[in-house]
Amino acid sequence: MTRHIYGAAAASALLLALAGIARVGAAGPSGWWSPGEGGRLPAYATYANDYGEVGVLNTSGPVDTNGHPFFEPLGGNGRACVSCHQPANGMSLSVASIQERWRVTKGADPIFAPVDGMNCPGLPAGDPKSHSLLLERGLFRVFLPWPPARDDGTPIEPEFTIEVVRDPTGCNTSPRYGLTSPTPTISVYRRPRPVANTKYFTHHGFGVFPFVGKGPLATVRDPETGLPTAMNMMADARVSTLKTQAVSAAQSHLEIAGALDEARLRQIVEFESQVYAAQVRHRTAGSLMEAGGPPGLGVRNLAAGASGVLGNNTTQWVFPVGDVWKKLATPAGASEAQRNRMRESIARGHDVFMFRTFWIRDVQHLNTVGLGNPTKRTCSTCHGMHMTGMDVANGWMDLGVTNLPWAREEPLNPWNERKPQMPLFKITCKASVPPHAFLGRAIYTQDPGRALVTGKCTDVGSIVMQQFRGLAARAPYFANGSAGSLRDLVDFYDRRFNIGYTAQEREDLINFLSVL
Amino acid sequence: MTITPRRAAVICIALVTSASTSAAPGQQRNFVACPIVRDTSTVPCWLAEYEGELYFLTLQTDVSAPVNPPQLGHRVLVEGVVADEPRVCGGIPLKPVVLSVLPELDNSCSTMLPAEDRYNLTFEPPRPPGPSRGRLAFDNPAPPPARPAAEAEALPKSFTLQYDFDSTVAFRHAGALQQIQDAVQKGKATHVDITAYRASSLLSNGKTLLEREDIGRRRAEQLAGLLKDAGLTGVAYQVRWLDAAAPDGGDDAAARRADVVVRRN
């Protein structure tokens, strides 16, 4: 029997009560999993969201969270890994859940810890303005040393200078936390990524080679196995294995004293390697898990899928949907008819994703890798990994999410009282290095992205693309939370590439994305 | 994006016109121009104009294609030979052709032409997912069979990397770098000799286009750095850079290269 834990909204709690569905484990009534609550995370559980339900599958069976390092607070701020990787949010963290936690705990939840849950440490505690980026866009502060250094600690000479043009959080100009502090640091603001379906972005399959053409650079190797990694984790690929990510996150986000021991690291990696999350029910289209249904939908199909595979449209589709929902009969019942119409829309949305061409233009690390600028292709050109829609490896590119002129900016005029929320940096590339292919040598950006790791001008604004699974459970989207909804997400691409979607295409594409 | 095996696109020209008499087959055409992209009902084709004549450069295929398309927003150095073939997309084909996207921005390069019925390419896409259904250009290949441990790579072994004008290692070079790495590791090499060149191109208008002064050094040092970063730190590197011989307007692109010799002692 499938059990349900309902999501963050108060309305969902009411539905839970009406439906008489038991909550599972120790998660609270809202579906929130607090650090150290204990209890069991079931082998399979579902959680409501605005589009239906997301399913979380543990292929190794139920997880006893008592004493488990993913679920126990590890550092001084009371957070656990689960704080920002909630099952109800597809193992990420939605802004709806963040706002709910603010209301429920009056800002005392560990996710609001000053280190990164505040716009900048030291701002007035308990004031929502101090946490506005987290509360409004789901963004945590990521603080990185400048200039960057290699893994062995040797400094990297940056190809550019960086100037703080706008600092609404105060952190980048702070004498304690900023660029001029004793430990020069740049603060950018990013969304937590889903810790689920990890075999797809840690694979050693297609596309993982000893050298990366983007950059170029030698591929980062797993320090334990010596094998080249996919370099497809985090917004900037600054770590490349689940273990090194856990070490890094424990130190920065969890403020652990000392280091995680091997046993706890192994437990974390083992858990992360077997947990899957995907939408399993759509409120109108119904179950996404039916036998004979689309073979790429639902969390069980996802868990059974092949990793390290570049999708195609012949044998291994990016998202195998098949023809089963292409043309459905019109049943007598109104709800069944509505269901079938939605299923047909989802099937059409898949075809928009897969086959609707548009001109992809001025994308560093996409139009520069041999495809030409522009290139007439489809969503699936970049989002090509089988089952997840990531790039198969080294998936960073500058789509324009953080670089001007495409990044979302607050319109400035006398009639708008809102002020810009995001920092703005001016990057000036040295004359001796290759410039950013489409922005040249002077770039304004809210987040230099991978360039904060490599110091390369051509990497400014490049962000590792994210997986598509469980989208419905974890708005907002993009690394900087600039798309508040799936419609915002589609609209960004429509505007960015002048696609000209019809209303029908837009609706179908949104419906398709909502069932992944 | 990923690297794929090279496959040639299949192009069927549905409508052709006779070749121009202004460019005789076999003539070399070296020039710098803004590229032009022309849409078709299938994939776009790329053109450039020189002295009032339109030349066909290539069409959109895949990163694995022998010739990669140029980029709007940048001028392109075209080094090609006029082919004795019908026009494609209205342009005289250049075959072979080498295209170098010049690094600096030039926003005047922005011409996109709409599709016209008379320029109709029937294109079998070599790389799904793409704009249409078609054969697979590649599949996820099975891993190569493991070589016997005792079988050492025969050394010395030489490799040549060809560069775009004023450029260093690009996306397409990852495979060549891997071959060098394999040779070092499997051959138990002790030395890697890298010689990189700065070259120039004699344009069809008689002018010479010279690469930036430090490009030879940058190419050589970058290769050594990449190999070291890949873990090849136990070998001795001899790194040098030279100016190539003067261009003759023929295959000048071949001089933009780095030679790598992997050897023992």
Folded structure, characterized:
The complex is a heterodimer of chains A (516) and B (265). Chain A is α+β, with helices and mostly antiparallel strands and 516 residues long. Chain A has a domain at 149-169 and 308-386 and 389-408 and 420-467 and 475-516. Chain A has 14 helices and 18 strands. Chain A has helices at residues 10-19, 81-84, 95-105, 114-117, 132-137, 242-252, 262-272, 299-304, 334-355, 367-371, 379-382, 451-454, 486-496, 503-514; strands at residues 3-5, 40-41, 44-49, 52-58, 63-64, 140-145, 160-166, 185-190, 211-212, 217-218, 275-282, 286-287, 358-360, 375-377, 396-397, 424-429, 442-445, 463-464. Chain A has a five-stranded mixed beta sheet. A three-stranded antiparallel beta sheet of chain A has the order 7-16-17, with no helix packed on it. In chain A, α6 (242-252) packs across α7, α9 (334-355) crosses α14 (503-514) and α13 packs across α14. The longest helix of chain A is centred in the last third of the chain and has 22 residues, at 334-355. Chain B has 265 residues and is mainly beta. The longest helix of chain B is centred in the last third of the chain and has 15 residues, at 215-229. The radius of gyration of chain B is 21 Å and the shape is elongated. In chain B, β12 (200-202) and β13 form a beta hairpin. In chain B, the strands form four sheets. A seven-stranded mixed beta sheet of chain B has the order 2-6-7-5-4-3-8, with no helix packed on it. In chain B, strands 10-15-11-14 form a four-stranded mixed beta sheet, with helices on one face. Chain B has a two-stranded antiparallel ribbon with strand order 1-9. Chain B is built from two helices and 15 strands. Chain B has helices at 174-186, 215-229, and strands at residues 10-13, 28-33, 35-38, 45-50, 53-59, 76-82, 92-101, 112-113, 121-124, 157-162, 191-198, 200-202, 208-210, 236-243, 257-263. The interface between A and B is large, with 59 and 54 residues.
